[in-house]
């Protein structure tokens, strides 16, 4: 009987107890122990196994239920390691901040107090060992009293545990940056950063009760923002070469899983859909998508539909022309060159390059090659992420999900007049595209739509053909289908739309942008001239068959 797929299970004990397929990452424990840095921060995209790995650490180190937990590691890598002697040797504090998603600081702080109360409740058994002073502080947190020292709560808990067990404490903080990302989005960042700066610093800075601390998150918030005064936090982000494969899956791990579930014949398609991430110098697969694929056997987008991408959407909605020009290159499958800092500041989101930082650290763009200093060549990593740009960028900011399929259908069926009418309707009802002035904006808009015909067409942009450069060319993979040549013009007036559309159509013919297409075996060619003025559209076309 084959093992099950533990979809959505991020608790190591449950994965093992329910006999789920487990990608053995316990060599991570050995590497962590070999690495002598006391405080480590790992930043990776969401759903790349951060919480499961932290849960694994909890069950490995925790002195509580040590013998029972020891059985969980039977036949895993760490059981055969000399470092297995560290199993069950330390009190462990495990706290996750991933659910702190509130609209106001007051609501967030209420949840923080509840989170800390539950954490203290987990260690209620040590309460009677506390002296009178510590007992008062413990109970203030446990009872969520207003005057409790919440800033000091983690530091104090490490002290209580150290005194009780006479052992140093392992501190695990999962998704440390989530409340800061939400706070920035909801406009209470200042209150949030003021609290968490003290909260983390108290627990991590020269804490004599600490054995080690491991933190995870998506981005490394700049030290001046969150780890002020802490020089002992070592960050292992997607730019670094150490610990690359401990989050996400290597190709060998994916191939082994496909073989186990008798699906290895699909490896090339799986690679196309879910590979392409790069941590350090290692190619990585998305584990959430792989597990979903193993579960139902269908190649489709899983990861991009699992989370609120509001921060990315928000930045796309106010993006300038530099961003849209770069997006156009990405849609074409090209690389773009951007500066990617190892640190992240929310202030960067106010500038044009902030969106690229956000997309890289969230896993939507791949660091293809480092150039110099902090400059990198970026690409879309795989087919699944391309669907994010369709659903996130096109559906939300360009046309909406109710319009994409119908307008594409009218084009492919040769109903060009209706295509032009629907295009104008899209402009009229869409309020996010408010800067419709330059031809390049319209070009990016149309290319962003047409790029999703790649399963049926070769989509080309600004290519040389005949005696000039066309705007967009669609060449059918099935030569029985028609080809489409587009040329765009922007009119200064509404009255000038007609003549501009004619000018665009004539340019296609005069400069012979469709030369050689019929010779390749394609019989039908639509020449389409489009003229724009704000949200008004005029279309002229000819069918050459």
From TrEMBL:
Q: Report the superkingdom from the record.
A: Bacteria
InterPro entries documented for this protein: AAA-ATPase-like_dom, P-loop_NTPase, PDDEXK_9
Residue stretches making up the AAA-ATPase-like domain: 7-227
Full protein name: 9-O-acetyl-N-acetylneuraminate esterase
Give the source species.
Answer: Fusobacterium pseudoperiodonticum
């Amino acid at each position: 009987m084959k093992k099950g797929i533990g979809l959505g299970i991020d608790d190591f004990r449950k994965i093992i107890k329910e006999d789920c397929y487990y990608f053995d990452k316990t060599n991570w424990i050995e590497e962590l122990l070999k690495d002598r840095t006391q405080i480590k921060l790992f930043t990776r995209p969401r759903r790349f196994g951060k919480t499961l790995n932290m849960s694994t650490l909890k069950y490995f180190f925790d002195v509580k239920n040590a013998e029972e937990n020891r059985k969980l590691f039977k036949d895993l890598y760490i059981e055969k390691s000399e470092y297995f002697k560290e199993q069950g040797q330390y009190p462990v504090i495990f706290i996750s901040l991933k659910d702190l998603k509130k609209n106001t600081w007051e609501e967030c702080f209420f949840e923080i107090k509840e989170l800390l109360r539950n954490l203290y409740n987990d260690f209620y058994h040590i309460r009677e060992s506390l002296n009178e002073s510590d007992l008062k502080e413990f109970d203030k947190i446990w009872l969520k009293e207003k005057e409790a020292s919440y800033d000091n709560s983690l530091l104090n808990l490490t002290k209580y545990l150290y005194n009780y067990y006479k052992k140093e404490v392992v501190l695990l903080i999962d998704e440390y940056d989530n409340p800061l990302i939400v706070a920035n989005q909801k406009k209470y960042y200042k209150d949030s950063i003021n609290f968490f700066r003290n909260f983390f610093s108290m627990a991590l800075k020269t804490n004599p009760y600490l054995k080690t601390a491991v933190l995870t998150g998506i981005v490394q918030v700049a030290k001046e923002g969150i780890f002020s005064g802490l020089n002992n936090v070592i960050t292992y982000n997607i730019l670094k070469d150490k610990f690359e494969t401990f989050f996400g899956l290597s190709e060998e791990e994916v191939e082994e899983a496909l073989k186990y579930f008798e699906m290895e014949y699909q490896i090339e398609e799986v690679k196309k859909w879910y590979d392409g991430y790069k941590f350090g110098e290692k190619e990585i697969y998305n584990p959430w998508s792989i597990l979903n694929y193993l579960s139902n056997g269908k190649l489709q987008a899983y990861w991009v539909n699992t989370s609120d991408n509001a921060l990315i959407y928000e930045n796309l909605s106010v993006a300038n022309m530099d961003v849209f020009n770069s997006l156009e290159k990405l849609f074409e499958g090209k690389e773009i060159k951007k500066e990617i800092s190892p640190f992240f500041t929310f202030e960067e989101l106010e500038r044009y390059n902030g969106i690229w930082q956000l997309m890289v650290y969230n896993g939507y763009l791949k660091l293809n090659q480092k150039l110099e200093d902090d400059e990198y060549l970026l690409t879309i990593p795989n087919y699944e992420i391309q669907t994010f740009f369709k659903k996130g960028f096109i559906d939300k900011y360009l046309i909406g999900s109710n319009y994409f399929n119908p307008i594409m259908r009218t084009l492919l069926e040769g109903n060009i007049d209706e295509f032009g009418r629907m295009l104008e309707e899209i402009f009229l009802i869409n309020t996010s595209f408010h800067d419709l002035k330059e031809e390049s904006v319209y070009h990016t808009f149309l290319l962003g739509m047409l790029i999703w015909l790649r399963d049926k067409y070769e989509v080309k942009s600004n290519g040389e053909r005949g005696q000039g450069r066309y705007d967009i060319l669609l060449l059918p993979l099935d030569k029985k289908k028609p080809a489409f040549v587009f040329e765009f013009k922007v009119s200064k007036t509404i009255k000038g739309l007609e003549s501009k559309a004619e000018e665009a159509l004539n340019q296609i013919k005069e400069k012979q942008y469709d030369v050689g297409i019929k010779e390749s075996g394609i019989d039908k060619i639509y020449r389409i001239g489009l003229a724009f003025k704000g949200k008004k559209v005029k279309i002229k076309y000819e069918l050459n068959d």
